[in-house]
Amino acid sequence: MGTVAESVCAGGLTEQKVLEALQARIGPRKFNAWFKHGTRVSIEEGTVKISVPNTFVANWIETHYQDEIAAAVSSDGDGDGGVLVTVDPDLNGRVRQRQLDMQADIVSRTAEGRTRPAPAQQQRTLRHKLDTFVVGDCNKLAHSAGLMMAGPSAPAFNPLFVHGPCGIGKTHLLQGVCNAFSKVRLGGRPPVWRYVTAEEFTNEYITALRRKRIDDFRNRYRGLDLLAIDDVHFFAAKKSTQDEFLHTFNAIESSGRRVVMASDAHPKLVGDLNEQLVSRFLAGMVVRMEPPELATRMEILRRHARQMKLHVPTDVLEYVAVHVRGSVRELEGTLIKLAAMASVSGESITPQSAAEALAEHLARTGSARTVDDIEAVVATFFGITPADIHSSRRTKTVSTARMVAMYLARRHTQMSYPEIGRHMGKNHSSVVLAVQKMEKLLAVGGELEWRTPAGGNSMSAGELLQRLSEQFD
Questions:
Q1: Has residue 114 been placed in a domain?
Q2: Which of 154, 198, 303, 447 has the largest count of CB atoms under 10 Å?
Q3: Among residues 87, 89, 69, 77, which one has the least CA distance to residue 332?
Q4: How many domains does the chain have?
Q5: For 91, which DSSP code?
Q6: Which 3 state secondary structure label does DSSP give 268?
Q7: Are residues 189 and 264 in the same domain?
Q8: Of 79 and 60, which is predicted with more confidence?
């Protein structure tokens, strides 16, 4: 399989067996797009670790394939089915253009509801809890608001809308709210709640329409005591689904029940979102979650080290916390890399050896914002996906979004033109031309134009960049 090691773990479980079982479950096309190239698989003490090149791929695999990976591990009779997805920027060079196009096509087809939706579940076991959520200045307000939403008494606000970059704990917070809320009693009865992603909501709605079971769909949602919707930005430019969600939201909120949502972007920055929905979201509490600050990063590293049963010296943890300033997932991935290094060398880790081993990784994550963060915000604004930005598609909307992402990457990171080009699967001259074009538009007060399923849009380049840059400054 190219990137897959052939090591054998205790009990006979191998990476090869896991991949073969996974391919049988999800089919060769999806397997080739997401797992065959640019992804590294390893197994330690029954836990499958999937290393991927960027946060978009990490989020997609966690959302769509984590259960299948766990089942592939368990099907062999070995391992505990644990799955950990981490980001390793060193894998960027292995992601080929054909794979990126396949990923963009799969995401597009999923967005249109052509893929088979997950079976509907009234309530399901969620892995994240509020008591394992690391609280710091970066997320204190969001956590406090989540506690109020999960309590037995009606909160003073409704809905709760949390937003921020990928990988900073938004999903953890939403799932923690649901798990805590499930333990309260409302008038002596257990509450009825549901956690879904916006994609799952969309696919269930489309399936209900096709099967002429829309009343069942509405009954399933509109009687909930709490509805938690993750990845709200997925609703961008989906007019019919937005209309249905608006009615669902109104039915729940008007009767004093609760709605909690999370998105990569502020409601006003989600591309082509219904104005009525935006108005209702803003009527509640909108809270931005920031990347963890130093003290929070230290606590995240300590807890993750304990969870992995690793002994890492405090000075090493301090070194990582100071230099890795991105997402929680980046912190966890760095810790895993250090653990692997110690296992191979058989020597204890010192700050000096950590610096040498992680020099390239730390250089790439040296800024407070990464290219993946920028791509996520830009894609959300234009109503596309990061996979579209990386693909070879040249539609007006995708080309405009790609140009804006390249310009912002130069402005908000320390990456060079060639580095940005390699990250996005383009040559460095494409990045230079994109930056030059944006600079010319800014100099003359020019406008950017793009299209969505709802029609054409335009905005001055200066205003658009200002609105997007607010997400990074």
A1: no
A2: 198
A3: 87
A4: 4
A5: G
A6: helix
A7: yes
A8: 60
